[in-house]
């Protein structure tokens, strides 16, 4: 790989340094080719070793002084790719050359830095072993790097420190600690000599040690840590901050080798510091060091004694005014507690928990968001073991929630924090444990202040195991108590309503306790009677849904347990539930029969799902008997309804509603009954499919047929012919609501024919017209089902080789009398071509004839037909090759152009899209030759639009490329600049007063996003934002200053202003030429817009023609108004103008009304 490939890309660029590098690189490359023997080709790639040798030779020559910088940069680019064996062999020579260049160019920062980087790379390549690094020569060069690591020049110092860190990383991977003593001596010497004299040097050293300490052995780290800890005792804030950053880097690094003694000393010192909790940076550093050091100390020795002290110290940081400090403290304290806190009866653990509970006082209210996040994480980590250790925290939290209304600065988010924490805690310890810690009831009944816990328990109980026994003994007993209070005579109406609501809330816990039950086999029989009575309770109809949801959860849990236990196929939980099927199924059916399907559809579906799930566990014989009785009741009900003299009579309507519910129950049991009952059901529903007087029953009959085909495919295959005949007979009697289910029936029948390889497809011509019309239905699901049936039939006939016959059937719809049918035919044809046109050769061959036939419809007046034809044309243009499409081009263009100008047809965009496709495929000139002269502007517009889009894309592409190029061309030296102690300087330009006076105002953003501007004036003082009068310089908008002319108008003796005309000098002709041309163009444009009816000036904006303010009644020789003969009394009016309603025109509106009112004085 060529290391200079990126550099060569910029050989012809504008960057002078890159150009110089490419010139030197080309010279080096020529030298390498000249040195090669005659047998080697010049196009053979040059190896990195050859580049290295040539660059070193050029560097050592006497003529390289003028290009030493470029050679060194090229050398730093190639050194990382040179093999280590080469660098180890040439180490002494290369290092000596680097030292010589560094000594002779001490003032050239760039060259010195490049030489230093190259020296570091060569040293880094040496073998990391004690034998090599104990050699005096190697140590001599390494000490050069150490000396430069304390250099006052930022670039040199950073380059040396970076090289040392890379060398130590190599040694740490090889477990070579030879250099650690040298690093320690270097640091100790600086600390000993510069602490009192040169604080800057100490700051630079401490920052360097933050990168080095994680790579040093434990003994050296301990000694250097003790030296750095002394710096924390000084009063130098900056020095202490940099030292803390170094400790943070050591503690956070997983590779740092910290001993228990070192960590203990660090923790003791940090905890003894006087920290300013309101100093965000300092506080965050102390939090990170303390918590991470404690977490790292735990595996080495016990932290039981230190942990309470650390927790107390961390709790003080929650008093800080910075939210970031709260979040960081919660995050890292969570890490420390999870690593060190072992819950138990030890006093240190109790002290920690007491400190955590203390965070729930009002003193820390402003930090409760982070505190509850911390508590949530801790409780979730310990799970069930959080009880009983955190019981007091749970109780305190509940009490705080009850007293929240009386708290200062309480808000809704606090309720979310409390609820989120209690939900996580209940999930961890379990609902039973939580209710034992904070019970919902007392001696007088339910505790209203804790009623908010019921939704918390409901959500949390779904995640953990639950016991039906606990629900029946604890929850239901409390619900019965609430119900008894609600029914008591002494209870007020309001209290009774409240107690009934509490009863329903307690019952809402039942589905949650049924999600993961552990005692179905032992305790479901004890609660089954209560559940049945609750479903029959007329006072609480909502209990039916809750009990059904719980039963479904129990059935699901029992089925999951049966699947997981392979050794016991007859699961005891399912057996316990199956014993009560004979009681619950009739009860559920009776409840369904009493529902109103129109107003209680949600409850109906839940009940039907429960019937379906419970029937799977019931005895099959019992289910068959129930189904037989259901069918008998259905037939009796429908027969009685049909015999009614008045079908709209209430009794007849009620019987039909009952029949509909019975059919819904039968639909729920279709997948469970046996084949004999399926045959009975099929015989029952066949007459309903032919009866269009009851659309609901017809729709459900089709749904039953779909379910039969889906769940009993053998029965469907056996009765396939009869089903096809039934569907064909019911074609003319299908109601609109039943179309979707009928189409799904047809789809199931086609799938059954395909699966059974039924040869008879004679029903297809009978039903294809219906399917085509259904593709135009208003119901989207019906349209989708129609297209699915259409494609299924096409695939069925395609498998038999009769696809073109099916397409001919679809084409037959083009001869229909109604435009609706013709449009549906074209739409279906488009879908078939879209699905099969790219794969079926027969369709591709027939495509010209199909297109020729469809093009004839372009001259129709029905818009729905034209819309379908345009869609087909898009497919034709995409599928047909250019040679086959050219003969249809005149017909397509002429047919489309008659619709493109029709504004009401809304086909402009679609036809323009097709014209664009044709222009791109055949060229603008050819398509324009087919277009009449009056419509060729459209082709010109399309061409110009496409060219404009191409130009914009090209400009965007170029701008992106230019941006990346400029970023690449930035000098790398700018990235290495050091800002330590640097001061920004500003240059003031003199003699530019005019420019200074016209400086634009600076734009600022307000809190709500609005833009304000700061007025600046070079002649005035600088705006002082600390001054209370500074707000006068902030304006809501930028306004241009008016230029005041020095010329003043002449004033006549009577006070009139004399405005002279514009002189007609020849000298002004050139100056006025441009403006006259612009005025002429503007007048022409306005005239054309007026002719087109697009003039921007609206009639309502023009001044009214007649008198508006009562001027015609003003007296000429007196004050006030006069009456005129033959006219109405004097009046004044203002024309209604919507503009005056705007807020910005309020002043103008008021002035108009005021002027109108003062036209004439009121007569006395």
UniProtKB/TrEMBL annotation:
Residues 945-1003, 1055-1126, 1143-1164 are annotated as: Disordered. Residues 968-978, 1063-1079 have a biased composition (Acidic residues). Residues 7-256 form the RRP12 N-terminal HEAT domain. Keywords: Nucleus. Residues 946-966, 1113-1126 have a biased composition (Basic and acidic residues). GO terms for cellular component: nucleus. Its main location: nucleus. Gene3D superfamilies: Leucine-rich Repeat Variant. Belongs to the RRP12 family. This is Uncharacterized protein.
């Amino acid at each position: 790989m060529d290391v200079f490939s990126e550099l060569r890309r910029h050989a012809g660029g504008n960057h002078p340094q890159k150009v110089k590098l490419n010139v030197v690189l080309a010279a080096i490359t020529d030298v390498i080719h000249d040195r090669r023997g005659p047998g080697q080709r010049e196009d053979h790639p040059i190896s990195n070793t050859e580049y290295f040798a040539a660059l070193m030779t050029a560097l050592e020559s006497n003529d390289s002084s003028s290009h030493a910088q470029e050679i060194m940069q090229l050398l730093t680019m190639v050194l990382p790719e040179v093999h280590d064996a080469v660098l180890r062999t040439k180490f002494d020579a290369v290092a000596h050359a680097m030292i010589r260049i560094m000594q002779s160019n001490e003032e050239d920062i760039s060259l010195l830095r490049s030489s230093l980087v190259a020296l570091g790379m060569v040293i880094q390549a040496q073998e990391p072993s004690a034998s090599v690094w104990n050699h005096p020569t190697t140590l001599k060069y390494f000490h050069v790097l150490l000396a430069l690591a304390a250099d006052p020049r930022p670039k040199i110092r950073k380059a040396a420190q970076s090289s040392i860190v890379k060398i130590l990383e190599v040694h740490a991977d090889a477990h070579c600690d030879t250099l650690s003593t040298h690093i320690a001596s270097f640091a100790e010497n600086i600390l000993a000599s510069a602490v009192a004299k040169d604080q800057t040097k100490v700051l630079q050293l401490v920052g360097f040690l933050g990168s080095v300490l994680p790579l040093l052995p434990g003994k050296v780290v301990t000694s250097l840590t003790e030296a750095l800890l002394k710096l924390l005792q000084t009063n130098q804030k900056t020095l202490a901050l940099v030292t803390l950053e170094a400790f943070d880097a050591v503690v956070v690094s997983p590779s740092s080798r910290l001993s228990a003694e070192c960590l203990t000393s660090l923790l003791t010192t940090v905890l003894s510091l006087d920290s300013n909790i309101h100093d965000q940076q300092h506080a965050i550093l102390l939090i990170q060091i303390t918590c991470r050091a404690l977490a790292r100390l735990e595996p080495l020795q016990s932290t039981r004694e230190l942990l309470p002290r650390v927790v107390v110290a961390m709790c003080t940081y929650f008093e800080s005014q910075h939210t970031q400090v709260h979040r960081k403290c919660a995050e890292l304290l969570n890490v420390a507690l999870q690593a060190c806190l072992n819950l138990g009866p030890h006093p240190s653990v109790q002290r920690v928990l007491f400190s955590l509970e203390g965070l729930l006082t009002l003193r820390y209210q402003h930090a409760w968001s982070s505190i509850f996040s911390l508590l949530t994480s801790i409780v979730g980590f310990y799970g069930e073991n959080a009880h009983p250790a955190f019981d007091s925290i749970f109780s305190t939290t509940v009490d705080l929630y009850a007293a929240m209304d009386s708290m200062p600065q309480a808000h809704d988010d606090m309720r979310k924090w409390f609820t989120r924490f209690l939900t996580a805690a209940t999930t961890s310890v379990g609902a039973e444990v939580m209710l034992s810690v904070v019970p919902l009831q007392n001696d007088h009944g339910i505790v209203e202040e804790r009623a908010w816990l019921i939704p918390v328990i409901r959500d949390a109980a779904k995640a953990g195991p639950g016991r039906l026994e606990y629900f029946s003994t604890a929850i239901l007993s409390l619900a019965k108590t609430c119900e008894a209070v609600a029914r008591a005579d002494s209870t007020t109406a309001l209290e009774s309503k409240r107690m009934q609501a509490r009863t329903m809330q307690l019952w809402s816990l039942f589905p949650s306790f049924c999600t993961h039950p552990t005692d179905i086999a032992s305790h479901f029989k004890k609660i089954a009677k209560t559940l049945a009575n609750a479903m029959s309770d007329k006072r609480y109809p909502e209990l039916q849904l809750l009990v059904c949801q719980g039963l479904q959860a129990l059935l699901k849990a029992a089925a999951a347990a049966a699947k997981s236990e392979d050794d016991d196929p007859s699961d005891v939980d399912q057996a316990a539930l199956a014993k009560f099927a004979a009681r619950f199924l009739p009860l559920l059916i009776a409840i369904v029969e009493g529902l109103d399907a129109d107003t209680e559809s949600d409850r109906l579906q839940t009940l039907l799902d429960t019937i379906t799930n419970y029937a799977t566990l019931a005895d099959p014989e019992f289910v068959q008997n129930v189904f037989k009785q259901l069918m008998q009741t259905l037939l009796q009900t429908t027969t009685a309804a049909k015999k009614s003299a008045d079908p709209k009579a209430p009794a007849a309507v009620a019987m039909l509603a009952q029949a509909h519910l019975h059919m819904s129950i039968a639909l729920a049991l279709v997948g469970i009954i046996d084949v004999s009952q399926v045959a009975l059901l099929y015989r029952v529903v066949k007459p309903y499919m032919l009866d269009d007087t009851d659309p609901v029953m017809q729709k459900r009959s089709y749904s039953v047929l779909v379910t039969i085909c889906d769940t009993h495919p053998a029965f469907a295959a056996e009765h396939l012919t009869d089903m096809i005949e039934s569907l064909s007979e019911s074609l003319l009697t299908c109601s609109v609501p039943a179309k979707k289910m009928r189409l799904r029936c047809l789809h199931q029948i086609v799938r059954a024919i395909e699966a059974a390889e039924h040869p008879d497809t004679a029903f297809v011509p009978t039903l294809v017209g219906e399917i085509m019309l259904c593709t135009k239905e208003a119901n989207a699901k019906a349209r989708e089902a129609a297209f699915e049936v259409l494609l299924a039939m096409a695939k069925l006939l395609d498998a038999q080789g009769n696809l073109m016959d099916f397409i001919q059937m679809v084409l037959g719809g083009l001869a229909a009398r109604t435009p609706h049918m013709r449009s549906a035919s074209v739409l279906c044809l488009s879908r078939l071509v879209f699905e099969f046109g790219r794969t079926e050769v027969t369709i591709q061959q027939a495509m010209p004839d199909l297109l020729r036939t469809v093009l004839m419809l372009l001259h129709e007046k029905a818009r729905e037909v034209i819309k379908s034809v345009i869609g087909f044309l898009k497919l034709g243009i995409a599928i047909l090759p250019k040679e086959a499409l050219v003969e249809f081009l005149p017909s397509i263009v002429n047919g489309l152009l008659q619709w493109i100008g029709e504004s009401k047809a809304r086909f402009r965009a679609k036809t323009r899209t097709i014209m664009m496709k044709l222009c791109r495929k055949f060229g603008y000139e050819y398509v324009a030759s087919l277009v009449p002269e009056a419509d060729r502007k459209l082709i010109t517009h399309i061409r110009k639009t496409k060219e404009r889009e191409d130009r914009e894309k090209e400009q965007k592409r170029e701008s992106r490329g230019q941006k990346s190029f400029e970023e690449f061309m930035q000098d790398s030296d700018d990235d290495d600049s050091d800002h330590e102690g640097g001061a920004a300087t500003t240059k003031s330009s003199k003699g530019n007063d005019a420019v200074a006076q016209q400086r634009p105002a600076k734009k600022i953003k307000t809190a709500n996003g609005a833009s304000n501007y700061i007025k600046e004036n070079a002649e005035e003082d600088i705006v002082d934002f600390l001054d209370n009068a500074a707000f006068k310089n902030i304006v809501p908008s930028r306004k241009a200053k008016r230029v005041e002319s020095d010329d003043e108008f002449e004033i006549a003796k009577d006070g009139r202003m004399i405005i002279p005309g514009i002189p007609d000098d020849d000298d002004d002709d050139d100056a006025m030429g441009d403006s006259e041309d612009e005025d002429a163009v503007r007048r022409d444009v306005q005239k054309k817009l007026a002719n087109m009816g697009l003039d921007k000036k609206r009639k309502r904006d023009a001044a009214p023609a007649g008198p508006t303010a009562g001027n015609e009644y003003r007296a000429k020789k007196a004050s006030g108004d006069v009456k005129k003969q033959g006219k109405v009394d004097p009046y004044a009016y203002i024309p209604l103008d919507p503009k005056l309603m705007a807020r910005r025109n309020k002043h103008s509106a008021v002035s108009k009304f005021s002027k109108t009112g003062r036209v004439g004085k009121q007569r006395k």
